[in-house]
Write a sequence for this structure.
């Protein structure tokens, strides 16, 4: 009986300490997610040009923001942010992270965007200041 | 028999907990049971941004 007990304790310990998940992913490429990713790809070059010129910046919440320009820039930014939000929400939903995790996903994407930003591009620091 | 009850209780507790890995210094707890693996999420985000920046 003691042996059985020890085995059960070991199983419990292993279950409690084992990594539940080491990475997250888009597990199901739904038409909506594919459309969002394709949309982001298609506007990437234009967005990059606007970023280089300082007309668009990356916020600390994982979205882009128009810092200048006209209605066309606003429209591009709105379309980009709509697609980004859809992808973020898909990650949350498909990995069962819970609705409250959306803010975390947004923050992590913002960090990645900051890391990828090239000199001269406008990025918002976690403090809210723009560089 | 009492050990079996104890073991069953332990197994129940273990089954209700999701553990995070990758960055023990920066775990973000969303609620009592779900902790996000920030390193894993960063990898995912990097992969998606690489895909987006790869062009048409």
């Amino acid at each position: 009986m003691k042996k059985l007990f020890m085995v059960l304790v070991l199983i419990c310990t292993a279950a409690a300490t084992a990594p539940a998940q080491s990475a997250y992913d888009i597990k199901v490429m739904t038409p909506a997610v594919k459309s969002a990713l394709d949309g982001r790809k298609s506007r990437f070059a234009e967005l990059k040009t606007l970023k280089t010129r300082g007309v668009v910046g990356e916020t600390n919440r994982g979205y882009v923001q128009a810092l200048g320009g006209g209605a066309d820039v606003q429209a591009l930014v709105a379309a980009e942010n709509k697609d980004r939000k859809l992808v973020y929400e898909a990650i949350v939903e498909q990995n069962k992270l819970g609705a409250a995790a959306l803010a975390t996903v947004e923050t992590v994407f913002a960090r990645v965007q900051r890391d990828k930003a090239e000199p001269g591009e406008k990025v918002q620091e976690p403090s809210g200041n723009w560089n | 028999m009492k050990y079996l009850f104890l073991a069953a209780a332990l197994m129940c507790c273990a089954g209700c907990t999701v553990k995070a890995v990758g960055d023990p210094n920066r775990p973000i707890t969303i609620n009592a049971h779900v902790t996000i693996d920030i390193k894993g999420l960063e990898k995912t985000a990097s992969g998606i941004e690489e895909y987006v920046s790869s062009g048409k």
